[in-house]
Amino acid sequence: MRVRVIYVLSLCAFSGICAAQSLHDYLVTQKWNPAKSGLLIAVAADSFGPHTSGDNDQTPPDISSYSRQYVRLGQVTAVAPVQRIDFPDEGLANPYDALTDSDKLAAFLGSLNTSQWRELSSRGLAPSNVTGTQRQLLLSIIPHPLNAQQVVYGKEGYGTEGDQIPVKPEVAQEVRLQVFKALDVGFAPLIDPKTKISMLSGVSSMTYRPEGTHLYRAVTTDRKPGSGGYYGQIVENDEKRSELVFKNPALSVPIELKDGETVSDLFESIRNATHMEIYADARLGKHKLAVIGDHAMVSDVLRAVALCVSGTYRRVGPAYVLTIDIEGQATRGLRALANSSLAQIAIQSKVIAARAEIKSGRLLDQLDFLPDDIFHAKSFLNTINVAPSASIDPGWFPASVMNSTIKAAVPFVNASGPVTSGNNGEQTLIPDPNLQDKIHLQVTVGFRYIMPNGIALESQPLNLDSGSVQYGSSNQPPAILPMDASKLPTGCSVGYRTDDVAAVKQFCDEAKQHGIKAVRIETKKPQVIEAAVASGLTVDLVVRPWEMLSGDVGEFDRNAIGQSGSELNQIPAARIDYSHNETSWFTTSFAPASTGLDSHWSRLATLAGNKQIRRVILMDPIPIGYDHDYQTDYDRIQSGGIYINGVLIPKSLHDLVPDVFQFGYTVALRLECLRKFGMDPIDLEHPFRRAPFARIPFFEVGDFWDSTFPNGRNMESDLLGIYSKFQKLRNDAAMSGVHQAIDRLSVAGHPIWLFYAGRREDRYRSPLRLGPASALGERFSQDRDAEEIITVNPLTAEEANGTLNYILSIQLDKPTCFDFSDVPLSRLSGYFEWMFKSAK
Question: Model's pTM, two decimal places?
Fold first, then answer.
């Protein structure tokens, strides 16, 4: 099969449509004989015109001029595209495309050896000069798409601009990245006469050029981090593998077709004729059919329509849907983003180490100035006895040391006229009397791209700022440890998770010795609850209504990739939770409405049947993967890192691809969405975070405007609507399950309380909360009578030498549970002594 890699593709030509020659009009003129050649069918034929060589091209079109071909399929001939787009795994986007520019540069620079540093500074490095991770990183650094544009430098920057010259993708392999030192010169210090705030004007040898200089600059398409490159492969269009068996006898029945009917109408007729659930993706439904002939076998018609749109049939439970591939569009996109993110996570520690090394100056000191540096910086610094190091700031010097090229730049700085300040009203800045006749020098670092023909594009400053987001700050006063339990608010307790009777006895003994009156126990065994009740303490039972227990049978909940929680938990990067601690909290969960839930809740009800417990607490009452704040995640994706309490935390898979942790993509819910809304939800990508793939005719999701059709059918609003409806569908299913769980666990008459995790960002800034089941659906806030939960985590409580050092930055003004579940049994006594005073 002949293939080639592409960036953006539209297989449909409509820029030069002849006024009277749409594909439909052309087919009508061909005098097709159905009696002899069988039925002819095309999809959306009224939307496409032929390729032309110009506005005055009078060459009569043929079928190839429409990028179409005749393909005989049994009794039917399909007017199908000659080519289509495929997405084999090897054609997925560069995994490092989603890194921020500063992370890419830091990772690449940190990976270079001494000889590569010399090459980088002298001649530059091209992707063809390196291999493996270095090559992928460098390909992601070089902009794509990239255009070169000639400009003329004027007094106030660029003047006359020339045409943009596209840099072909295959040439990108030979584009060289060059990193070098440059010299910034600051002079003409100004000062606000009222505030005494100074402002320094200056120029850099990296960017300054004399007026009239011709140079080339890089012109790139603005792409946000996380968007990746748009990749796919053009291949010859033929029938794809189908999960619908066309030899099924139910499909061997004739069906009548009409010219001009829609795809949706046709498939309704097919369902009526075959008594099989066969649907067309909603994006295809409104397209009209061009039909010459009046009837054919259903099996042949289904094959022909699929080939006309380069699609195939996917099975969804008892139903089938005509869509782009057997693998869902969202599935493929999410898998690609996850794979890309795992590659990023794998080099995060290297990026952090590289930043530290670069900051020290040891790496950048291996760089040199460009031979054609406009200020002759290297020789100039030698003249004034300054070491040309990128890690030092030479500081202030008499203006008399300036060489002729630096002096020539002074008029450029003054060209913009008077400088004003907005402090205390608009003020014109005046020369700073203390810094007149002085200049400030600073060695900086820049980079540029050198084309294969030797043309160097404009230089740019090398910015290695991480652009990070800060979390973890708190205005609450720290609690003083150890605390006196008798002075804590009424209702405070300690929690523990165990299935071991001896362990719960030890835990309850420790609680009593430190004046704690209530414990919260999470267990799967009635004997553990009995032992806790026997201690004489007030006992709350904690259960997880959706977590599968040993012996449970039922349908797993799954994400859009098809992974269950336990399968996700096999990925180390997925085990990093929202607080960036390693955990195994993603266990296998029941799908909402699973047939095994009834017996599962009966087992939990047995635990809740102990008459001496105070209440039942449902941990994660809403199934994990159904609470999500997209905008918060999007902000964190854009950042270069996350700081929690001032410590840089590498991104986790949660941060980079939160959609992986969204569940509810079971066959039952997918089928309900298909029946109600006409789409399989595994084809519905998140509307604001799509995978890096080429645009696809008939199955467009990558833009606000479906430009594969000349009238620009606005499918985006339809897709957003279906996406929102599916989110409501799956959340309604989850909430229905929550109410059922509450009903089943209320058999013993105990109050049911719910654990509310809050929005994702709340996990960094505020404690987790409990509230009564009667308030289901409400968000607990500081002014409600809600209990708080604080997890005592050894990963954050212990120093490297094992010393306990933990600050509770909360206000203990309401009932609080201190959960010790993550504390090893052997350390339990020490943790109690550290947190609470002895009651003796």
Answer: 0.70
